[in-house]
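Final report, Chapter 2: Outcomes

The project's central promise was a pipeline that accepts a single protein chain and returns its three-dimensional structure in a standardized token representation, suitable for archiving and comparison. That pipeline is now operational. To close this chapter, we reproduce one record exactly as it appears in the project archive, with the input sequence first and the structure output second.
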Amino acid sequence: MRRRRVDLAVLGSGPAGQKGAIQAAKLGKKVVVIDAVGHLGGACLNQGTIPSKALREAILDLTGFRNRSYYGSTGETSDISINDLNFRLHKVIEDQNGLIARQFSKNDIECVNGFGRFINHDCIEVVDHEGEVIETMCADRFLVATGSRPRNPDGVPFDARVVLDSNSILKLDYLPESMLVLGGGIIGCEYGTMFSGLGTQVTMVDRADRLLPLLDTGIARLFGEYIKQMGVELQMEQTVREIRHGDDGLAEVEMESGEVLRAQCLFYALGRTANVETLQLEQAGVSQDERGYINVNPLFQSSNPRVYAAGDVIGQVSLASTAMEEGRLAVRNAFALKTHQFPEFFPYGIYTIPEVSGVGPTEEELKEQGVNFQVGLAYYYELGRGPIAGDTTGMFKLIFHAETLEVLAVHIIGSNATELVHIGQLAIDFHARVHYFINQVFNYPTFAEGYRIAALNGLNKLDDRRKVSELS
């Protein structure tokens, strides 16, 4: 049996593992990535972020959804097959998988297909899919980036056809006429609105009083109104008693109220679980919290100084974008390089229909902090680009300090929101004042022009003397 020592052993090849491995290779370290999936990219590429976004784009293109405000439902969803949707999805995954392989090869990063499990504080065993130990690997440093998987609680009869999670929904071989979505978070809302765009009758169920509770209230309200107009039925503040298969093969959800909801399939989107069970973390002295996530300090270092962790396994923000930066910073910290702290504010992107994105605190958070702020709004129908693109329902929400006029936050709903947010991110990072947007010349017609209109709207709400001084 092979035994060797490397500088960095990375467990997992998702966003955190990729960027951490490449960062270490750039430092001249000997890096080995142990990946259990068999395809590079982890859940992000193979079952999560990338395929779901590819599916969304395929739906928008094939259904003509973007043109419905002008031409109505020109796309015949009955003519769209699951093969039409899967073609784009699989092509994107294949291309991205090849890209990661080329990046690893270019940086002399070795990949081993198997499972890593700790046997002591500085060594792991690599086990193949038959359970055979194929090598022992010791390392100066470890990066645990094994990601997460959909939570599948006991009592939910998952069967990958009628009762689905976020892995099996991507393997459907039919387009459902109706769907129950349990969970009003990001994953539930993304898939719920996608299938609604396909013509599926979607009912969303959640115990909260609104969807996407992380959002600014105004943006969340607008989102809820929009998807109801799409035909999505919302069952909020509901508690589920039982999930079962009906006698006729349909999915059934019985509420505490006694009401029973039925649909051709059910999508369970209530949380994810860290992939840590097979790691034998106790052998390495790595502590975990009560939910199984790895405890780390601000350097992403675990209770074992040799072991660092990043991404979904640390149970913080479950975004591919943040996982990438966590992995990179963890490796820089592991090898004692000067680095910056993880940014206080970073954007989130929600690929629902419509897109939602933001950076910085919400209006509610600023009120709780006692910050004196002002809000400027710009609606897509006010922009030349909005009517041209067929999106007149989107909105910018620009929040700035009412005294210093420093930009504090940006929240956007509508087309290209996940791209547009980065303009606001730069303004926040550089402590720009709101008049920065007023004094810029934006291409016309563009959605980005909304920043200028929102800034003017906000300044117009200040007292008259402030308006004169800031707008002159």
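Archive annotation: The CA atoms of residues 239 and 407 lie 40 Å apart.
This record, like all others produced under the grant, will remain available to the consortium after the project formally closes.
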